[in-house]
Design goal:
Elements lengths: L2 E5 L3 H12 L3 E5 L3 H10 L15 E4 L2 H5 L3 E4 L3 H11 L9 E3 L12 H8 L5 E5 L4 H5 L4 E7 L2 H11 L4 E6 L2 H23 L4 H21 L4 H4 L2 H10 L6 H10 L4 H4 L7 H15 L5 H10 L5 H9 L8 H6 L2
Parallel strand pairs: 1-2, 1-4, 2-3, 4-5, 5-6, 7-8
Antiparallel strand pairs: 6-7
Amino acid sequence: MRQIAVVGAGAWGTALANLAARAGAQVALWSREPDHVAEMAATGVNARRLPGVPLAPNVAPTADLAVAASAAIILVAVPTQALRSAIEALAPLVPRNIPIILCAKGIERGSGLFPSQILSSALPRNPAAVLSGPSFAADVARGLPTAVTLAAADCAYAAELAQALAAPWFRLYHSDDLVGVEIGGAAKNVLAIASGIAAGKKLGASAGAALIARGFAELMRFGQAFGADPATLMGLSGLGDLVLTCSSEQSRNFSFGLALGRGVHVDAALADGKLVEGMHTCGILMDLARQRSVDMPICGAVEAVIGGHMTIDAAIEALLNRPAKPELASAHLAKR
């Protein structure tokens, strides 16, 4: 059996461990908390992160990072802001050229780096691959039909890794557009907060659809500025993930926005301790957008609301009062 390791025993890491196990691999699921590992080993369930979903029999929880580093393929499923420390811990243990697939979505604060760039800076001897697309952890863990994208700088390498993880219910498309896949995964979280706010304010389904469409135009403009392929952004890891995240309360980002739209304070909306990656991403996303003069009014409004610089009502008014203009940005990009 193939040896695969998943670093990070959150909901997404657990789902990926179950996926790899059901596809025929022996899987090590690493958590940095020994008591968490002991609990999973004793109960056969990750009750802390993905309750109600049994671990596959060939998933072995471990707190020993050396065990994870000895696998033939390593999936790193920790949040983007914790990714560097996880990679630096792996660096002295993992052999050269062992595939490392990054499963985080976001941008590192301070550096402005995407996950693949973090890996390249901290562990350059192991080529980066990125897994992203419209996928909720609970759906993947339960074996429900899902389709995502796996990207690497070399398309043949991406196809090889995709084949290693594919299952009948988990369809993997491959791509060599790393930057496009990562931009889609990062920007959609910020836009999902905006969609949640609109739903919480009861602005209606028409406003929700318009917000997704205009948010996608922002994503496309940002992607163009950073060299992404428009076809990637219009695919699973861009538009597909955007639609999913902006339309379901299963999305932590959408649910966070929903609470804000209902009048809950930012701190109270975060009180359950669940990660809201879009909140951490919006500031650095807007810094990068401003550096390249990319117009992103919806993402900018999210940044202003979360930062306490603008009320939700004022942000909505500002967006509605923007000058009218031709709807050309997405169409021009699609023709490139």
